[in-house]
UniProtKB/TrEMBL annotation:
Entry superkingdom: Eukaryota
Annotated positions binding heme b: 192
GO cellular component: extracellular region
Function of the protein: Removal of H(2)O(2), oxidation of toxic reductants, biosynthesis and degradation of lignin, suberization, auxin catabolism, response to environmental stresses such as wounding, pathogen attack and oxidative stress.
Protein name: Peroxidase
Domain Plant heme peroxidase family profile per the UniProt entry, residue ranges: 24-318
């Protein structure tokens, strides 16, 4: 009887461990353990955007750069240490990511209410959704239950994040490697309807590309000299409405006014051009596809159950 109990107990524990590892994300994940979480995050984001609307684009970019490197696990938030080289200072991220202080602020508020309960990865996912919605974009149910990574990879950040000079095929391949379709890629690129880019990211486009509107290139050249080294000045990714989440980005592409080469490559004479044209005249369709793609992206490599941890400080592991 004792042997039977021991084996039975072992099997139950094995099943429980397996269930924990395979736990699914849920939009109700914190409904009992941290009620009021989502209004709290939304209020913090709203206060921050009132002071600086450009932070919204920073948070969305932060979420994207987190998910594309070993999954949505808050690894991008980790600070370097003498023995750890994380993702923050990888070439695609160095001097370009922002919003870390806002995540820290939200985390402090959440910890005061629900100690050691809500992961930094989930806070970032919620803040990205709220940033989009508060700037005029769609709202969607964020699936929660992610846990935070105990490490990060500078090498993976350098290898996995698409370049602003990438061509259409390279973009499709990068997103396909994460389980996302070409349509997902085009919809998610629509996040460039908010935010800014440095001169170094678009200099080659305004001086070397043929598929660029001449007057648009001329305006951008005024603040982005061809010979200057370094990052240079900033320019809006969508000059029509840089602080509003709308479909103007796709209208810019139709007019050959995409700021980055990787933007304009979405309209490159291939079978997916129709998606860009559709989004340019149908904001509702863009919003629906963007929200669905954000949910899919938010599930990439999510740590759940007993994997990872809930960090008390988003900048370092416990």
């Amino acid at each position: 009887m004792a042997a039977f109990f021991s084996i039975g107990t072992f099997l139950i524990l094995l099943l429980l461990a397996s269930a924990a590892r395979g736990q699914r994300l849920s939009h109700k994940y914190y409904s009992l353990s941290c009620p009021g979480l989502q209004p709290l995050v939304r209020d913090a984001v709203q206060q921050a955007l009132r002071r600086d609307p450009s932070l919204g684009a920073g948070i969305v970019r932060l979420f994207f750069h987190d998910c594309f490197v070993n999954g949505c696990d808050a690894s991008v938030l980790l600070d370097d240490t003498p023995s750890f080289a994380g993702e923050k200072n990888a070439p695609p991220n160095m001097n370009s990511l922002r919003g870390f202080e806002l995540v820290d602020s939200i985390k402090a508020r959440v910890e005061a209410r629900c100690r050691a309960t809500v992961s930094c990865a989930d806070i970032l996912a919620l803040a990205a959704r709220d940033s989009v919605a508060l700037l005029g974009g769609p709202y969607w149910a964020v699936y929660l239950g992610r846990r935070d990574a105990r490490t990060g990879s500078r090498q993976a950040a350098a290898a996995n994040l698409p370049s602003p000079g990438a061509g259409f095929a390279a973009l499709v391949a990068a997103f396909a490697a994460k389980g996302l379709t070409a349509r997902d890629m085009i919809a998610l690129s629509g996040a460039h309807t908010i935010g800014q880019a440095r001169c170094s990211s678009f200099r080659q486009r305004i001086y070397g590309d043929r598929n660029v509107d001449a007057s648009f290139a001329g305006v951008r050249r005024q603040t982005c000299p061809q010979q200057t080294e370094g990052g240079g000045s900033l320019a809006p990714l969508d000059a029509q409405s840089p602080a509003v989440f709308d479909n103007k980005y796709f209208q810019n592409l139709v007019a050959r006014r995409g700021l980055l080469r990787s933007d304009q490559e979405l309209l490159s004479g291939g079978p997916m051009d129709s998606v860009v044209w559709h989004y340019s005249v149908n904001q509702t369709a863009f919003f629906a596809d963007f929200a669905a793609a954000m949910v899919r992206m938010g599930g990439i490599g999510a740590l759940t159950g007993s994997r990872g941890e809930v960090r008390l400080n988003c900048r370092k592991w416990n």
